[in-house]
Amino acid sequence: SQKIEQNSEALNIQEGKTATLTCNYTNYSPAYLQWYRQDPGRGPVFLLLIRENEKEKRKERLKVTFDTTLKQSLFHITASQPADSATYLCALGGGAGKSTFGDGTTLTVKP
Amino acid sequence: EAGVVQSPRYKIIEKKQPVAFWCNPISGHNTLYWYLQNLGQGPELLIRYENEEAVDDSQLPKDRFSAERLKGVDSTLKIQPAELGDSAVYLCASSFGQGELNEQFFGPGTRLTVL
């Protein structure tokens, strides 16, 4: 069956460091992959999308990689700030606009 | 510009009672989604609409859940009767267009507690 795995434990890092979150999947061939941010009590907010034929995508302090051979995406936040503390969700996109979400990784950036 | 609006934000009911959630998507977004999110988990799709047509309702428990989007704009999700296991956050999202590359805009969700 299809499975999406994100960092199994919460991630705690020091301000200014680079946070790296992982998204691994099995039994899935996504056409694209998205990353969302979710704060407590709020809905997810879209951050980045990367297509299956793209290796890397950047947006300001964010960088996403997508390795379809390893079936893995890495999400990096450089120069992290306490305001980056949130839960980050990856979502795999298949045909006809359907996305399947992982369970998320909670990131805490300490000042 | 207003985002996705959901109401109510919180609902507490006793088991076996009915409950309804309302969602108004971003103006011009023809695709509307209802998700269920349990604590510590990612959103799970319940139903997806393209305009007024339900194009994916394979994960909707049809014995007790129903949804409608009569005019292709706002939507209502209903549970009747509610069970203890239905306690969760119900998220509505909308996007423009169909198919791939659909950035979804989420509402704040309705937190349902079934006692």
Question: What labels describe this entry?
Answer:
heterodimer, A: about 110 residues, mainly beta, Immunoglobulin-like, 5-stranded antiparallel beta sheet, 11 strands, B: about 120 residues, 7-stranded mixed beta sheet, 4-stranded antiparallel beta sheet, about 0% helix
How are the SSEs placed, and which strands pair?
The complex is a heterodimer of chains A (111) and B (115).
Chain A: E1 3-6, E2 11-14, E3 19-26, E4 32-38, E5 45-51, E6 56-59, E7 62-67, E8 72-77, E9 86-93, E10 99-101, E11 105-110
Parallel strand pairs in A: 2-11
Antiparallel strand pairs in A: 1-3, 3-8, 4-5, 4-9, 6-7, 7-8, 9-10, 9-11
Chain B: E1 5-7, E2 10-13, E3 19-24, E4 31-37, E5 44-50, E6 53-56, E7 65-68, E8 75-79, E9 88-95, E10 105-106, E11 110-114
Parallel strand pairs in B: 2-11
Antiparallel strand pairs in B: 1-3, 3-8, 4-5, 4-9, 5-6, 7-8, 9-10, 9-11
Describe this entry's structure for a reader:
The complex is a heterodimer of chains A (111) and B (115). Chain A has a single domain (3-110), classed as Immunoglobulins (Immunoglobulin-like, Sandwich). The termini of chain A are far apart. In chain A, the strands form two sheets. In chain A, strands 2, 4, 5, 9, 10 and 11 form a six-stranded mixed β-sheet that branches. Chain A has 111 residues and is an all-beta fold. Chain A has no helices and eleven strands. Helices cover 0% and strands 57% of the residues of chain A. Chain A has strands at residues 3-6, 11-14, 19-26, 32-38, 45-51, 56-59, 62-67, 72-77, 86-93, 99-101, 105-110. Chain B is mainly β. Helices cover 0% and strands 48% of the residues of chain B. Chain B has no helices and eleven strands. In chain B, the strands form two sheets. In chain B, strands 2, 4, 5, 6, 9, 10 and 11 form a seven-stranded mixed β-sheet that branches. In chain B, β5 and β6 form a beta hairpin. Chain B is globular. Classes of the chains: A mainly beta (111), B mainly beta (115).
